[in-house]
């Protein structure tokens, strides 16, 4: 640590106050000041009667309602869906609508879709090619191209008619369809129309999708996961009107709430899992299965509704007979389902004790390939998720929550989720699973079931703001996951986002989904880590949890925007967080707070009989100059040592000897003080405290609180929290004065000792600096590959040189 003496006047530091700010409506033209704490008013939508300044629905908030009545048939052999649906659209907006927009998500697989035509090639350059034009094409890419060439994909739609049977004009635009109404739909009115539709189901493993079928060669059966399977109304909102942006793959779905009545006809030996409550169990389940379902309501552990033995029996032979499963769902924004003869089915009742829905049936559907992994953990993870998420939001409002195994790694819909992990078949016929697969299953079930809360109930716009569902949900699945087993690396700690935060290949979190460069860290990990910091470091759990629950309950069954989330969290917590939203969500700044210097200061007493002795000690502690050291070693004497008879006062006394002149000046200083000044000064001299000045630099640009761990000479430690507002007048450099009692001497200081702020360089957080621990790896040089590469390049250079010489000779 650097030592110095501080004078009384130095304790009073002038504060430079500036009114300069940054933003869209103001311009900083003087100096280099940047206001990191400028309010977000210019960036957020203006509050209105639909969305208030408090972040809650306004007095005139509205949203549309869409009800569906669908009859669908699964042709297993052709792997094709055919269906007819009737749609009731209720116009709750204050606007008259002349047309409606629907989403045709299956059209993304058409060869002329925007998604297909703008897909970029990601091949690999062949090594040794002097002009890297040739590339490697993976077998997976070839498989996808072949499947799409061999199958007609996308929706086929026919017989679009109004409730009177009159034709409605239809215009298809990529993954969207406009239906022109025969009569304008006025506010408060509703319209009914119907259509037939069909499409060929994609093979998910071949194409890569959010739904599709999976074929099992060993038993000849399929698992069908059906989502985005019917033409769905696009959302019509107060902030954007029609949300009719094409489906490109990353941006998910923006939908309206409504009621569903769906009849699903499948082969008679199939088991169906779907959004909603099964309305006809007596028609599709045996008496034994219905009894097991009733038993499961109060079971301690999951009960098999369809046992493994029954599922294996179903696998053996197909059937030409069919059954129709009838599901009803109220107040949901989507509908998905799964069907297979391979499914076993277990269930367990979750008694949450809430008034809205006291009993929820947690259920899992999976083939034998799921094995003990699914038997032990899937349904239990469903229940655990509801227990944790309900604490942060509201009671789970639906009758069922389901986890279904199939080809989709992880995808969510109201009351149903698709999850991918499985066991591995061993040579002896048994099945086992790795630790990674176990962690994957628990993690993906928690994450996807969590999505039933966000955004299936708190209905954010996934197409625009992926982080509003993925980020918030990743934060909460991190809470639920760590409450399951904190030793599992859940990936939501601030330290988990460090490498991404300092990378160049990134965009702000507030970027539309399809334009995000790295979706995982941008939409999932970064906002999750940010909220983790907001809860654990900035607000504390009490304030954060109250505000977050307020947000969830305000926007339950409604459609929030980022502004609504930001405003609610501030309004409910009582803390201005605009600086936090701006830094973490609107910029690509990162956290890198460096502790540059620590000065140890003591108060100058101005009493020469005290201060001069201290100055003498300081001078004596200085290293001996090399010149003087070597002269002494050589035995050389000073002139004054060889002539002791020539001396005066100054030879007897050093420059730190006190005279009456200094004493008189000190007494004059004391007499010139006001009584309160002298009292204050003398008390400070008596206490003789330590004054430490810490110098910080903000190297990353993102302002954050400064978390300090102070270690003292006596071995004790102290933690100090400095709010982020310390950077409000200078976002690059600040100093902080810390005062300790006499004898309480600092020996070291650490910034963010537990890595709670995502600081990208922890080595500049220590003072004094520490030796950086690392490892070095011994390796054997691979000569052969390097030699081949060099030989190829040498041959190329030689041939090029010969060609140049030949061309030059011909020109002569």
TrEMBL record:
User: What UniProt keywords are attached to this protein's entry?
Assistant: Signal
Q: Is Iron-sulfur one of the keywords?
A: no
Transmembrane domains' residue ranges: none
Q: Where is the signal peptide?
A: 1-23
Q: Which residues form the Peptidase M1 membrane alanine aminopeptidase domain?
A: 377-584
Record's keyword annotation contains Cell inner membrane: no
- SUPFAM superfamilies in the record: Metalloproteases ('zincins'), catalytic domain
Name of protein:
Peptidase family M1
Q: Which organism is it from?
A: Pseudoalteromonas lipolytica
